[in-house]
Fold:
Amino acid sequence: MSVLIYIDHTEGQIKKGSLEALSYGAALARKLNTTAEALLLGTVKEELSTLGKYGIAKIHQAADESFNAADAQVIANAVSAAVSASGANVVIFSFNATGVAVAPRLAASLKAGLVAGAVALPETENGFIVKKTVFSGKASAKVKINSAVKIISLNANSFGIHEMGDTTAEINIVDITPTENKVKVLSTELIKGEVPLAEAEIVVSGGRGLKGPENWYLISDLAHELHGAIACSRPVADDGWRPHHEHVGQTGVQVAPNLYIAIGISGAIQHLGGVNRSKTIVVINKDADAPFFKAADYGIVGDAFEVVPKMIEAVKKLKG
Amino acid sequence: MKILVAISKVPDTTAKITFKDGGTKFNEDGVQWIINPYDEWYALVRAVELKEAAADTIIHLVTVGDASSDAILRKVLALGGDEAIRVNAIPGDSFSVASEIAAVAKEGNYDLIFTGKEAIDYNASAVGGMLAELLNLPYVATATKFEISGNTATIVREIEGGEETDEASLPLVVSCAKGMAMQRIPNMRGIIGARSKPLKVVEPTSVESLTEVVGFELPPVKTGVKLVDADNVDELVRLLHEEAKVI
Structure:
């Protein structure tokens, strides 16, 4: 019996979401009086034993380099083999591009109940109950998993990364042969120099109030000063002012940063669903009746074209 | 080519979400039901585009639901699609829904199965992956572009901070996200044509759910916005730094 955390990586780097999953899995293992173990398929640059600082006792590594470009099916088969070998009864993924493809496959093959998009540690006093967002952020549900093996994929920015001390993890090299890779990755294009939206701690988001795509320097300059990610409302993406992957809301990306700054966005119910797990919400809008102010912690009723440049200056001054 | 598109019925995006029976059940009173946007706008419309490009393409639509889902199925038939199949059961969790769709898919021998990226009610993004596993097919999640040439599909999918281009052979399961196609509105010809298209009802295989919802909660209500004067932006930045401690 143990908790097994899947370590997701790209270009030799462990993804930030996986550090959060490691912290979450370790906390769950403490709660269940069991050990937290992790699984790495392929290779990364980091020294794996240092992941002990997140509370991980043991890391199983299947070091076959072909795992670095494996598809969801190959990964799910390998995780399944590791679950059998380690006797894990809870498996943790990040609810990200990998987790969204792998966790359901693993769940179906193991007949294991899956909670996708968890936002808190399970309640274990009366069954195994995991809280997740539903209705695209407009509510949360407590979901009870009734199967012997349980799978959780964790929403980004919902638990945090926690270091427990200077312990090192034991490395256990395992021999898992990759199955046939049926989805071949032809190319990967990462937008360099930008903070990925789903992982960002600060998000600066613009709406129709910006009047046109030529004014987006206001959003990107402020995001740059704050080391945040850029986002937008649905109409802005639909009108082609900004790419679809920046669209935050019910039918776009759901985010939960520490700080969400909404500029020139009125705050339709579909948009609010995508952002209401943000810790602090700032709304800048010249319409004092914009519904977004009701969901905000701080607000300025004013013209974005005057307020945002002043804000950029103020942040510059603060950061010295 | 034979395509199966999985369809889900969800509350309208503008619906006010409330619960009843001590927060254990979704309150359906006054809720308008729509086709899950990802299923309709992207999965179905892309399938219809593929049919427009290759006339021998057959599109089947499948949903798990009781008779109240028939209105939704007529609407998807009006948008395109040759036949709808309703598995006559109240949908359970992702695993039970995927199992029911897998049973239909095995019967139909499809080359391509499209689902939406997620349903906007439970947001699990799980049915497509589970379906692929149950059918032992490759799966590409959150696709934003899909092209086909012969038996080979080229698919662009979203990843953290960018996108990835994949190649896979049919048969294949793909979950569809924004970018795949442009939303369409059914025309009169489609609506009239849909009336005579077959809507088959099949009995469920009754695979049990592995999970159950035991309660719902609404997000905490904000206590009130702290307004800062537009001439005093420095004060906002000070509050974010010293009070909220987020910058």
